[in-house]
Amino acid sequence: MFFTFMRGVVRVVLFILNGRMRLVGKDRLPTDKNYVLVAPHRTWWEPLHLAVAASPKKFSFMAKKELFKNPILSFILKHANAFPVDREKPGPSAIKTPVKTLKDTNLSLVMFPSGTRHSSDLKGGVAVIAKLAKVPIVPSVYQGPLTFKDLLKRKKVTIAFGDPIDISDIKKMDKEGIAEVERRMNEAFDALDIEVDPSFKYEAK
């Protein structure tokens, strides 16, 4: 209930800031199973757009553990299905928690494989999680304002979803297997950016 309520609030705020969001490929989202929704991390508000754009599906999120030190923010994050992760020393729970959630609940997972807004390098975590949970990886991209200043100028936001990436053919998530998953994700991100706007170029702010 809290997640649904918060998403409704966020939807109104985003509409006030940027108007109606343009959605591309929403019909590509699985409707009968959980999945890992991935995107290159371009803004700190991008997770909000993804959660609203993929409605009515509900999601869990990874969040750095430092955010949970504030009791008010911690309450909001926990009730919005977020769980803490130590980015310096992730530990087994960084894999076990999302895998269990994907298997045992109706929550899908939002992840940013690069782990940071200023990196294009993909991490292996998303590949391992999707493989263990036996769910597809769904690529997505955000195109819109990249600075808070531009966010307040009611610039249009577009969220695009790609076809689910099937990794069932990859038998082992070793170095080669993870590299292949990363290649497929990067290829999907590039294709989506071209589909939405071939002239779009992301520059870290």
From TrEMBL:
Residue stretches making up the Phospholipid/glycerol acyltransferase domain: 35-145
Organism: Enterococcus larvae
SMART domains assigned to the protein according to its UniProt record, in alphabetical order: PlsC
Protein name in the entry: 1-acyl-sn-glycerol-3-phosphate acyltransferase
Signal peptide region: none
InterPro entries (alphabetical): Plipid/glycerol_acylTrfase (IPR002123)
Coiled coil: none
Entry keyword ATP-binding: no
Pfam families: Acyltransferase (PF01553)
Alphabetic keyword roster: Acyltransferase, Transferase
Single GO term (MF): acyltransferase activity
